[in-house]
Recover the amino acids of this structure.
C-alpha cells in the first residue's frame, strides 16, 4: 500500500511509503514523465511523486539528518552554484514550483550539457547559467535578486565565491546552504583546518551560522552549513 | 556627471547615483540574436547598442562611467569612449530594478513573459558556450589518438626486439605466449629460465595449460646461456615496454572520456577509438560534421581512393570504418553496403554532435542495426559473377605508368 503525507516541517516536500514499508522523501514532479537520474516515480491521484535519493543529493541527506532550517519552499528564488548534472536541481525545481525560480550555475561543459538536456529543457522554472561561479559579476545581466543561495561547488575554497555571489544577488536576510568538505563526523568538535577557515570567512562576510550537520551515512565527507545573511551596507 | 551602466537581457541601461534611470538602449530581435549580443559583450567585443548608448551619454555630459565587470569595460574602450571608467561590482544589484522597468516601459506585458524570454536567452547562450568549449577539445582527441598509434608502432618494434633478444636465451616461449603484453610481463617479472615455476606463473594469472607448457620448455630449453648482465638489460627493456603499454591504456581512457564529452553520438555508434580516428582523419569535429557521408566512408583509404580516381582501379569500400566489427566480420559482398549504411549514420551523428550535442546515439544505433539486418537478409548469398565485363567508367588516364624496372630482358 503506497501512502504519501506532507513533511512535518518543510512545505513542498513529502514522505512517501512504498510497498516495502520504508518511508522515503519525495517531491511532486514539475515535469511529469521525465526521469532525471533513474529515480523511482509514483503516481498518486493526479500527481507524480519523484522519490528523492539522499545518497545522490546532499540536500535530501540534510533533510533526513534533521537540518534545523531548510529555506527552499514553494515560490523561492534560488541561486544554485555548482548545479552539476542537475540531480538536486531537479528536486529544488519541484519544490519551488511555477512561482519560484532556480538559477543553475555550472561551468564544466560535459555536466552543463547534461544539465541542459535532462533538466532545464523540461523545466520552465530553471534558468541555466554557463559561467564560472567564482566570477559572479560576469553574469549580472542574467540574474535578479534571490532569497536563497545553495552552494555545492567542488572546490576547497567555497566561502569566498559564495559570499561574493551573496553580495551581488542575495536579498538582505536571505539564507544560504553550503555543502562543505568535513572529514570528521562531529564537525563542531573536531573541525578540519579548511572547515575552520571557511567558517571564519563566512562570519566575516556577514553570515550568521544557524546549523552545521554532517551528512553521514549518506555522504561520508561532507557537512551542510546553513546560515542567514545580513548585508553590510557598503 | 557620473552614471552607472549595466547590461540586462533587454539592453543597456544607465542610472544615476540615486538609482534614477537616465538612458536605455534596448535590444531588438529574437532571443537567439540577443544571446549573441550578450556573448559578444561577455567577450569584451563592442556592439551597436553599446555605441549608441555611449553617444547618448556623451551628449548628456556624462564623462564618468561605472560598470559592473571588466568585459564591459573592454568593449567600451574598444569604442574609444572619451570619459573615465571605473568598475564597481555592486552595481550588478541594479539589475533587480530592470524587471519593473521592463514592465513599466512595455518591453514585456507580464512577469511570466520576462522569465520565458530570459530562459530562452540563457539556454541559447549556454548552448553556444558549451559547444565552443567542447569543440576545442576535439583537437586534443586528435593528438591523443595519434599518440596512441605512435605508441603502438614503437612498442611493437621494441617488443619485436625483446623477442629476438630473449629468444636467444629462451626460444620456446615465443611459440607458447602469443600475447605481446603478457610476453614482456613474463620477461620483466621472471627473466631466468629456472624461475618459471607454477607458483610464480599462477601469481601472474596464467592459465594452467600454459603454466605446464612453460615449465616443461623452460626446463628443457635449447636456448643459449646468457650472462646475468645481459638478462638484466633485457629486463630493463621489458620494463620500458610495459610503461608504454600503461601509457597507452591511460591515453585510451582519456580518449574514451573526451569522446563522451565531445562526440557522444559518434562514440555510441562505433566506440571511442574508431570515432576518435575519424575525427583525427577529418582534422576536427567541425570538419567531420561538414563532410558528406561518402567521404566519411573512405576516410583513411585516401591512397586507394585516389588510385581509383586516377587509374580507374576499383574504388575502396571503406576507410577506417573497416575496423568496425560488423564491417570486417561480414562477407566481402556485404561490406560495401554495410559501410555505406554506417557512414550515413556516422555523418548524422557527427552533425548532431557538432551542432546540437544531444545524445541520441541509442536511436541511431537502433536504426543502423535495422539497416544492417536488412542488408544481411537481402544480400545473404554472394552475387553471381557475370561473365561479360561491365563497361567501367572511363578513367582519366588509360594506362598506369610503367615503372622502369632496370634493364629490359631480351
Amino acid at each position: 500500500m503506497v501512502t504519501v503525507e506532507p513533511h512535518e516541517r518543510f512545505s513542498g516536500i513529502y514522505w512517501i511509503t512504498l510497498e516495502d514499508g520504508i518511508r522515503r522523501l519525495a517531491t511532486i514532479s514539475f515535469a511529469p514523465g521525465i526521469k532525471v537520474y533513474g529515480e523511482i516515480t509514483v503516481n498518486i491521484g493526479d500527481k507524480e511523486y519523484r522519490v528523492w535519493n539522499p545518497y545522490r543529493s546532499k540536500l535530501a541527506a540534510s533533510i533526513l539528518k534533521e537540518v534545523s532550517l531548510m529555506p527552499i519552499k514553494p515560490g523561492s528564488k534560488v541561486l544554485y552554484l555548482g548545479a552539476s548534472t542537475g540531480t538536486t536541481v531537479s528536486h529544488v525545481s519541484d519544490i519551488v514550483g511555477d512561482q519560484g525560480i532556480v538559477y543553475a550555475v555550472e561551468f564544466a561543459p560535459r555536466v552543463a550539457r547534461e544539465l541542459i538536456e535532462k533538466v532545464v529543457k523540461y523545466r520552465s522554472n530553471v534558468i541555466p547559467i554557463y559561467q564560472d561561479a567564482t566570477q559572479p559579476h560576469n553574469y549580472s545581466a542574467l540574474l535578479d535578486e534571490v532569497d536563497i543561495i545553495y552552494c555545492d561547488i567542488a572546490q576547497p575554497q567555497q566561502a569566498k565565491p559564495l559570499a561574493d555571489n551573496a553580495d551581488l544577488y542575495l536579498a538582505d536576510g536571505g539564507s544560504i546552504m553550503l555543502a562543505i568538505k568535513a572529514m570528521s563526523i562531529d564537525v563542531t568538535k573536531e573541525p578540519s583546518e579548511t572547515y575552520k577557515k571557511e567558517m571564519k570567512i563566512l562570519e566575516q562576510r556577514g553570515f550568521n551560522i544557524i546549523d552545521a550537520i554532517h551528512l553521514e551515512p549518506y555522504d561520508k565527507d561532507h557537512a551542510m552549513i546553513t546560515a542567514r545573511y545580513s548585508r553590510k551596507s557598503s | 556627471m557620473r552614471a552607472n551602466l549595466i547590461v540586462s537581457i533587454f539592453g543597456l541601461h544607465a542610472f544615476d547615483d540615486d538609482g534614477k534611470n537616465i538612458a536605455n538602449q534596448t535590444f531588438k530581435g529574437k532571443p537567439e540574436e540577443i544571446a549573441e549580443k550578450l556573448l559578444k559583450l561577455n567577450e569584451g567585443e563592442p556592439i551597436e547598442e553599446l555605441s549608441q548608448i555611449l553617444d547618448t551619454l556623451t551628449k548628456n555630459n556624462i564623462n564618468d562611467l561605472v560598470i559592473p565587470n571588466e568585459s564591459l569595460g573592454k568593449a567600451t574602450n574598444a569604442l574609444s569612449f572619451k570619459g573615465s571608467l571605473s568598475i564597481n561590482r555592486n552595481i550588478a544589484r541594479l539589475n533587480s530594478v530592470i524587471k519593473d522597468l521592463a514592465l513599466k516601459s512595455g518591453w514585456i506585458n507580464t512577469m511570466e513573459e520576462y522569465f520565458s524570454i530570459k530562459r530562452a536567452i540563457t539556454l541559447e547562450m549556454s548552448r553556444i558556450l558549451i559547444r565552443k568549449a567542447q569543440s576545442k577539445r576535439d583537437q586534443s582527441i586528435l593528438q591523443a589518438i595519434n599518440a596512441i598509434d605512435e605508441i603502438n608502432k614503437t612498442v611493437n618494434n621494441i617488443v619485436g626486439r625483446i623477442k629476438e633478444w630473449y629468444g636467444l636465451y629462451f626460444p620456446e616461449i615465443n611459440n607458447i605466449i602469443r600475447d605481446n603484453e603478457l610476453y614482456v610481463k613474463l620477461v620483466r617479472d621472471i627473466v631466468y629460465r629456472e624461475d618459471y615455476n607454477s607458483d610464480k606463473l599462477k601469481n601472474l594469472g596464467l592459465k594452467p595449460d600454459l603454466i605446464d607448457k612453460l615449465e616443461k620448455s623452460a626446463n628443457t630449453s635449447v636456448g643459449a646461456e646468457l650472462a646475468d648482465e645481459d638478462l638484466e638489460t633485457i629486463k630493463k627493456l621489458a620494463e620500458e615496454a610495459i610503461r608504454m603499454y600503461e601509457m597507452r591504456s591511460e591515453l585510451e581512457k582519456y580518449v574514451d572520456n573526451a569522446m563522451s564529452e565531445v562526440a557522444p553520438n559518434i562514440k555510441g555508434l562505433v566506440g571511442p577509438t574508431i570515432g576518435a580516428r575519424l575525427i583525427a582523419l577529418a582534422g576536427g569535429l567541425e570538419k567531420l560534421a561538414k563532410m558528406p557521408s561518402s567521404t566519411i566512408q573512405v576516410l583513411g583509404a585516401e591512397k586507394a581512393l585516389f588510385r581509383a580516381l586516377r587509374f580507374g582501379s576499383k574504388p575502396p569500400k571503406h576507410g577506417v570504418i573497416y575496423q568496425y566489427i560488423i564491417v570486417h566480420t561480414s562477407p566481402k559482398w556485404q561490406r560495401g553496403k554495410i559501410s555505406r549504411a554506417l557512414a550515413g549514420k556516422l555523418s548524422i551523428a557527427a552533425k548532431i554532435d557538432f551542432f546540437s550535442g544531444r545524445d541520441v546515439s541509442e536511436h541511431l544505433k537502433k536504426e543502423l542495426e535495422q539497416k544492417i539486418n536488412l542488408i544481411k537478409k537481402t544480400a545473404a548469398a554472394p552475387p553471381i559473377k557475370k561473365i561479360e565485363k561491365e563497361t567501367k567508367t572511363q578513367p582519366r588516364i588509360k594506362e598506369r605508368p610503367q615503372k622502369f624496372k632496370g634493364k629490359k630482358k631480351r
Remarks:
- Chain B touches chain A through 38 residues (CB under 8 Å).
- Chain B has a mean pLDDT of 88.
- The longest strand of chain B covers residues 2-7.
- The two ends of chain B are 102 Å apart (CA to CA).
